[in-house]
Amino acid sequence: MSNTFREYLKKIGSGTHTGKDLTRTEAADAAKLMLLGEATPAQIGAFLIAHRIKRPTAAELAGILDTYDEVGPKIPTNDVSFDYPVTVLGTPYDGRSRTVPVTPITALILATAGVPVVMHGGDRMGTKYGLPMVEIWQGLGIDFTQFSLTQVTELLAKTGLTFVYVPRHFPLINPVISYRNEIGKRPPLASIELIWSPCSGDVHTMVGFVHPPTEMFFKETFELRGVKQFTTIKGLEGSCDLPLSRTAIIGLAEPDLKLPWERLLLHPKDYGFGNKDIALDSETKVIEQLQGIINGESNELISSVIYNGGFYLWRCGVCADLKTGFEQAETLLNDQKVSLKLQEIINFTNS
After folding, report:
1. From CA 43, how far away is CA 30, in angstroms rounded?
2. Buried-most residue among 205, 211, 255, 274 (CB within 10 A)?
């Protein structure tokens, strides 16, 4: 048992009147004690529930990220020259269960246009046990679970797209994920999954969220950590996928903006897109739909794919405006360039 961790647990778990928040340094130490297994299972389970009930602060999230930076894997993105900053797409690790994800095609569109993309995640996990990104990539012909971190890094340098598979590349978090499955609730560590960057250099982090307070936590956490460029999206199921069924609520932050942080409300109907998000009825069908779009076919996903691809092309600096972004996304698909990019990655991984 860790006596130090017990004090952290007592501090956050003492209730509304006497409980206190952890400092950034304490949160970093608590995270390290959990990841290194120095806290007992009873202590970790109690901490995760107490932290969820209390709700995390930006300083606590920043501290946990400090520990992830210290003990987690890092892709040295500063060692590779790209025309655009590396984009990290933060996706909920517990997957998708209600709507069809188009994130992999968004990543392919960006990589095709020269924007390097890093994704990260693992296998099915609680509380949703939804379809994870790694299984979608396997369905598209790429098994990211088989690569070492060195190969993952090389894949980014050679093709502009890679995936950090946390069960293999960050095994220290595997026990904590098992606690998450057992307690049946998403602890604040689930928020860390969205805003963590497995890269050593400056990146542009795209962060999905569901509840409005979460967006402000993320914004404050990035500010504490000195992150100048990030995007927050009230996306489908907490992902980075823009919804067609409602106005997209987006936060923009980067040094070149007039303000450090700006709000963008994106209405799909203003650009001629439909108002329907496609339901996830069959996981097999999901792969077929995504593969069809990549191959230049048109199915019910096409509006969501172009809408998302165009937005991210604009946001990453490839296109000067949204309209041009939507046009370029459609052109890249129709000209089979996205399909060629996928095949390039498959060929490289097979070699």
Report:
1. 11
2. 205
Which residue numbers in the chain have pLDDT < 50? none
Q: φ and ψ at 15, to 5 degrees?
A: 100, 175
Map out the domains of the chain as residue ranges: 3-71, 83-350
pLDDT value, residue 258: 67
- With a CB cutoff of 8 Å and minimum separation 6, the contacts of 156 are 75, 77, 80, 86, 116, 118, 162
How far from 292 is each of 63, 241, 287, CA to CA, in Å? Answer: 43, 19, 8
User: Strand, coil or helix: what is 183?
Assistant: helix
Q: Please check whether the domain covering 83-350 is classified as CATH 3.40.1030.10.
A: yes
pTM of the model: 0.95
Q: How far apart are CA 57 and CA 51, in angstroms?
A: 10
User: Distance (Å, rounded) from C-alpha 307 to C-alpha 124?
Assistant: 27
- Domain 3-71 grouped into CATH 1.20.970.10: yes
* Inter-residue contact 263 to 216 (CB < 8 Å): no
Tokens of 242: 């823009």
Judge whether 75 and 118 are in contact, CB under 8 Å.
yes
**Residue 96 near residue 131 (C-beta atoms within 8 A):** yes
